[in-house]
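So, can you check?
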Amino acid sequence: MRPVDLHRAAAHWLTRDLLALPVHAMPEGVAAEDLTWTLGVAPGGGLSVHAPAPPVELTLALADGALPHPVAETFPHLAACHPLHLTGQDAAGAEELLTGQVVLLGRDVDGELAVATSLQVAGVLDDLYADRATRRSYGPTWTSDEDGTRTPTVTVWAPTAQHVDLLLWDSVPGPDRDRAWAPPGEPAVVAMTRGDDGCWTVTGTPEWADRCYLLELLHVIPRTGRRQKVRSTDPWSVGLTIDSTHSVLVDLQDPAWAPEVWRSAPVPTAIRAVDQTIYELHVRDFSRDDEEVPEQLRGTYLGFGPDGAGRRHLAALAEAGLTTVHLLPVFDLTSVEEDPALRDAPDRDELRWLSDQDPAGTRQQVLVARTADRDAFNWGYDPWHFMAPEGSYTTSAGEAHGGRRVAQCRTMVGDLHRLGLRVVLDQVYNHTTDSGLHRASVLDRIVPGYYHRLDRDGWVATSTCCQGLATEHAMGQRLMVDGCVLWARHYRVDGFRFDLMGHHSRANLEAVRAALDELTPERDGVDGRAVHLYGEGWNFGEVAGNARFYQATQGQLSGTGVGTFNDRLRDAVRGHVHDDDPRSGRGLGTGGASPHDTDLLQVGLAGGLAGVRFLSQESGQPVTGAGVAYGSAPAGYATSPEEVVNYVDAHDNETLWDTLLLKLPQETPMAERVRRNTLALATVTLSQGISFWHAGTEVLRSKSLDRNSFDSGDWFNHLDYSLRDNGFGRGLPPEPDNGRRWPVLAPLLGDPALRPSTQDMRLARDCALDLLRIRRDLPLLRLGSSGRVLDKVSFPVSGTEHGRPDVVVMLVDDTAGEQVDPLLSGVLVVLNLSSGPVRQHVPWLAPERWRLCDVQRDGADPVVRGTTWDAQAGSVEVPALTAAVLVRPRG
C-alpha cells in the first residue's frame, strides 16, 4: 500500500471541522504526531496522483486520543482513528471546499510528503446537509393551479456539483405503441438553481409533461481530480424511455396512466402479519409458458389478466387461503434488454429436441448461455432506477415509454387485487449494478463517492454481490424511504421484501415503517399501516456484528413488526443448502432423523420465539428457543411471531422438489417423493409466524437441478400451471454454478422414473390447497402474539419417553389464556416424518375427544384419512410421511 496515492481514499472527513485518520493510512513506523497535517484543496481539480501540489492547504490540528464520543458512536468502525481538526474559519467554508478536489496531506520535518490520500466525504456531507436535505421532495413533483393545470418542478440533491443544468427534449412519442422511441434532436439547456441544502431545482411549465430530460452536472471527480461534465438520468425518476436512456416527466396523478382495473379493484382488506400466506413469483415466469394467454401478453405485466391456467391457479390458491403474491423485482433494472427487437434467445424447438434425446445433456446450457446477456430473463436483482417500473415486462417496445409502463404495471397490481391477493414487491436497496461513471451508475453520477459503502481504502464494498449501497447515509435512507412510499401510494402495493436486509440498519427499517404509517386512505388512497415489511436478516460482510450500525438482522428487530426469513426451520426440514455435495446434510423432510433438527423445527413451528419452552428432543432437558443452537446463533431469536417468515423453498438455491431428488436415494418411489413435498410445505403452513411458498413448489417445480437460476433463461426457469411438464430433465444446468456437481446431477436427470406425471402434480397441488385451507380455517395456527404462543403452544412428547426425532407433535391449547377459537378448544398437529406409520402416545390428552380436521377428512389426500385417535389410550395413529391436523371441539 502506497501512503502517497490519491487513487485511495483512506481517510475520512466526518463533520464540518473533523477529519479521521486511520492507522493503516500511515507509513509503517511513522506516528501521526511525527507529521504536519493539512487539507489540500484544488477547486478545479487536477492534482497529480502521486505528487499532489494543491493550490490551497489548510492547517489541520491533530488532537490527542481517538475520535470524540458522539462521532465514534455514529461511525463505530472508525472509533480508533486519529482526530484532525480544521480551524473554525476554514471549517466555515466546508460547503465550497467540497465542490473541488480535497485531499489529506501529511509532511515530515523536512516538508516531504509522507501521506497523501483522497477523502471519503459521506460523513461531512450528511453533517452539512442532512437535516435540511431530507425534508425536500426529489425527482419530478407536480403542483396544481386553480383550474387543475399541473406544473412540474425537478429537484436533485447534488451538493458537490459546481453547476447543474436540466436538458429538456421537446418531442413526445406518437400513437405507435409497438416500436421503440427515443427523443430526436438536441435538448434545450435549462439552468437549475442551487439552494443552501445542496439541492438544485427548476420549475417548468405544464407543457413539460411527458417530455424527456437528463441532468448535466459539472463535477470535479474524486481521486482522479478530473473536472468534467456528466450526464445522468434522475435517480428519483418515475418514468423512463426504453432502456432507461432518458428520464420522462411523468405525472403519476395523470388519469391517462390510471387503468380502470387498477382504479376499481378494491385493495385487499388489512390483515395481521401472521395471517399472511405468501407466494413468491417472477413476473415473466407466471405467464410465459401459458398457452391460454395471448402470445403478446405472455411474460408481461398484462399476463396476469387473461383467464389462463396461471390465473385460474392463483384464483384457486386465493380461494383456499393464499393472501399475498410476492413479486421478484419489478423496478427498473439493468440486466434485461427492454426492446424485444434487440433480444436473442435459443431456439425452443432445438432445446426440446435436445432434451428429448438427452435430458442430462450439456448442449442445452451452452445454447442458453450464448444468449444469456441478450435474452428476456433475469431474476432482476440489478437495480438502476428504484422508483420506475421495469420496461422489459411491458407488452411492446412502445409500451415501455414513460407513463405507459406505469399503466401496465398498475394493471398487474389491479389484476392481482381483483383476485383478493395482496401484492408485495421485492426491494433491493443494498446494492446497485454499477458505481463510478458507468452508464448504469446513476447515483455516483449525481454525488460521486456518496451513496456507496466504501472499504478502508475507499473502494466500493461488494459483499452484497455487487456495488454496495450505504443506506446508513442520510440520503441513502431517503432514497429507500421515498421508494417504498411511492410504490405504496402510487401503485397501491401492500408490502415490501428487502433483499439482504441485514446490510441495512434497524433505523432504516424504522424510517420506512414510520413514513408508511403516515399514509392515510383519505389523503393518499392507501392505509400505510396495513403495508407489511419483511426481508433477509442475514449477518455477514463488512457490516457484520453491527460493525458500522445496528443492523436489521434476525433478533434485532424486536418491536418493529418487520419479519425475517427463518433459515433454521428451512435447514431442519430440507437439510443443508450450501454443501459442495448436494446429497449430504439431510433434513427431516429429506430422509434425515437428527434430534437436533427436531428441536430446530419445533422452535420454528412456535414462530421462532426466543422464549418458547419445551423438553429438548436432543437432550431431554428443558430448553428455550434461544437455548437451542443454530451454529453459533440461537435457533429462537424472535420476540413476536410476526418477526419470522417460515419457508422451505425460495428463488435461491435448488427448488424443494430438486432438493428431494438430490438428497433421497434415487430409487425412492415417486409417491414417497410427492408426500415428502407436501409434508415439507406443511411444516411452513401449519406454523405460527408468516408462511412463505416459492411459486411452483405446490406443483413439484423443478429447475433441472439448477442451484442458481438467476440468469438461466426461460428454459431452466420453466413454470407450467397446466401441469404437463414440471421442468425436470431439461439438460444439465448452467456450468458456472453447477459444473462441479454435474457428475452427481447427470444420472438423476437421465432417469425417466424421476419425472412426475400430471397426476402426481395434480395430487401435490390439491394437497397443498388443503394445507392453505387448514391454515385459513384454524385461527389457532395464527395466534399472532408471543403471549398467546407461549401460553398455548407446546410440544408434549418432545424429550420424553414417548418422543422420537422423526415425529413432531405440536399442541395448541385454547383452554390456556384468552380464548381465540369459539368452536375449537385445541389443535393437535402431528408431523410423521418417518417412512412408516406411527402410533404416537400423547397420554396427557386421554380421554379427550379429538378428530381429524374437516379439511383433511374431506380433502384430496386419501392417506391422511387413515389417521385415528384412541381417546382411552391417548394415542394417535398417523400414516407414513403425513401431516395430520386433529381438532378438539368445544362442549
Remarks:
- The chain has four domains: 4-120, 134-252, 273-437+475-595+620-764, 779-889.
- The mean pLDDT is 97.
- The chain has 24 helices and 41 strands.
